[in-house]
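Narrative of accomplishments. A recurring question from our advisory board has been how the design workflow behaves on a single, concrete structure rather than in aggregate. To address it, we present the structure tokens for one chain from the evaluation set, followed by the sequence designed for it. No filtering or post-editing was applied between the two.
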């Protein structure tokens, strides 16, 4: 992993990896990192997220493992009562569901953020692109940054010669996540606009 990532992000990833290992040792499937933190990883830190969303059926076990690693339940005025917060790192963790993208993503495509002796599972970049477009599609006025993230992820994916983008899979996932409102051609058009270079 390169040094383009901020210290807090890398530290949080390592804490998550330890906690994920503990959950897996208890007999659960290893949790998967999704959302903004997955985008932060794929963009090399261009997009910064303070929220680490995690998919696991083992919410209680994961939360207990994170509490042992310096995370705490937020309290006080103006604090959300969902998830956990690491005050020093200023990063929150929330369990978002029991299955990866409600069972619509192919888990065989899940990759691994390599942290040396351990790692953090992460969805395929195609699934992250489709997820961002799905969020944009659900509320264009409220989520314009999601389109920008989808476009940037697509551009990054297109530049990776060692891991070619699976256009057929991406197209299927976009159609599903946007309920047919958008397709791959929409994404390609936006990626080719001058302001997205």
């Amino acid at each position: 992993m390169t040094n383009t990532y901020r210290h807090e992000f890398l530290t949080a990833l390592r804490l998550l990896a330890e906690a994920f290992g503990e959950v897996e040792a208890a007999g659960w499937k290893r949790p998967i990192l999704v959302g903004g933190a997955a985008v932060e990883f794929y963009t090399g830190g261009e997009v910064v997220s303070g929220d680490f969303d995690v998919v696991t059926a083992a919410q209680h076990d994961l939360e207990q493992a994170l509490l042992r690693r310096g995370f705490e339940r937020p309290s006080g005025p103006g604090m959300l009562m969902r998830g956990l917060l690491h005050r020093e790192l200023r990063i929150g963790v929330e369990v978002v569901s029991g299955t990866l993208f409600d069972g619509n993503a192919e888990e065989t495509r899940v990759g691994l953020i390599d942290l040396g002796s351990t790692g953090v599972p992460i969805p395929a970049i195609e699934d992250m692109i489709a997820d961002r477009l799905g969020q944009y599609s659900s509320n264009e006025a409220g989520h314009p940054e999601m389109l920008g993230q989808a476009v940037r992820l697509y551009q990054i994916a297109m530049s990776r010669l060692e891991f070619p983008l699976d256009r057929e899979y991406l197209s299927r996932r976009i159609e599903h996540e946007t309920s047919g409102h958008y397709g791959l051609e929409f994404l390609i058009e936006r990626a080719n606009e001058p302001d997205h270079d």
